[in-house]
Amino acid sequence: MATLKRGSRGAEVKELQSLLHRLGYNPGTADGIFGLKTLQAVIQFQNDSGLSLDGVVGPITWQALQSKDQGYQIYTVQSGDTFYKIALKFNLSLSSLIAANPGVNPNQIRIGQQMLIPKTQPKPVLIRSVGGWIPYWLQTQAFRSVQNHPDMFQNLSPFWYEVKASGEIIKYPGAEDNSILSFARTQGIKIIPLITNAFSSEQISAVLNDPIIRQYHVNNIVKLLRQFNYDGIDINYENLFVSDREIFVIFLQELKIALAAIGKQLIVTVHAKPDPFGDWSGSEAHDYLGIGQAGDAVRIMGYDFHWSGSEPGPIAPADWIDRVLAYAVTTIPKSKIVLGVPTYGYDWPLELGQVGRGITYSYALSTARRYNTPIIEDIQQGPHFIYRANEVVHEVWFIDATSFAPLLDLVNKYDIKGIVIWYLGAEDPKIYDVIQTSFR
């Protein structure tokens, strides 16, 4: 295309004006005359696209115009529209709609205004299932991760409920958030909320060992799934008494029958272990064989090899995960096994009696920069570093995309169902590139 500027005339100017119109700018009538209105429209487009504001349509501006024209359609704002409603209407993430309209204030759209709607791309075909846990204490940030990568997820499990000793189910703050439910359903993502026992052995034991309370709890789960039309439930009952090993499986069998009757899935989350016993009572109490028979899927928490109360060290070393999966596939069908993969880290103060604090990937990076300390990269164990603050030495271990990748390689090695991310909102953004590379 020829280089055009104010005063230019002809068919190419007319094509430019039509193109600007399609992209939501106003160059005036498409009359083939590069006048003041066309100049103003070109400069506005250059400003929105981060180009030089010279008003000249040369090769770079032509390329930007044609690129946007091929990947977008025009939408005229209607009464009652908001950015969020428009994103839902076109099955888009909110972030992609905002990115496509850099010159539009999301809080000040008006009726009749034209916006660019990115043409949706088909979901990447992944050979593994990808899910994510949404913690209630980081719900807004975690939901943003989903909005930014809706094509990645087949299911989401918001951390919304707790079982009490009475068999009642209580809600955590932010539970049943309609924005999450609406967005997930628009994107075709299954919602399978999580119920926890708050790590209380006594709390869940009271439910499991009383047939009346146990049935009451099953009925409450069924009622909850029907009320919100959830796709299933994630039973995350941790730190069980070893004496409750068998009755827990019986409970799951009873729950499975009740859920199958209404077409809902039973997901069970279990402690990771490389043998039938593991290294503590909670892992021993999870009977992989019985749980694998009862559940539609079994999520193995492949993290906290070192945890807040332990000495510093890797959170999900690849050699440990290898042993965990090697054992799991001997007791649970591969098609049911889902590996819980971590995204977070811990910061341990190296003082007597101090415990580690959970941190996000971004916090780890900012801390290393703040204290000007080098990060030791270790693909198999995870990145880590040491720093000193207020005369206290700290040791930090965390997960980045590089150390995340070997865990996905193990998922492929053992040919299991897929992964579930613990937890969304804490991750290195590059893990989504790793997922696509590993699972496509």
UniProtKB/TrEMBL annotation:
GO molecular function: chitin binding; hydrolase activity, hydrolyzing O-glycosyl compounds
GO terms classed as biological process: carbohydrate metabolic process
Gene3D superfamilies: 3.10.50.10, Glycosidases, LysM domain, PGBD-like superfamily/PGBD
Top-level division of the source organism's lineage: Bacteria
Keywords of the record: Glycosidase, Hydrolase
Stretches that traverse the bilayer: none
LysM domain segment(s): 73-117
Segments forming domain GH18: 131-440
One Pfam family linked to the record: LysM
Family (UniProt): Belongs to the glycosyl hydrolase 18 family.
The protein's name in its UniProt record: Putative glycosyl hydrolase
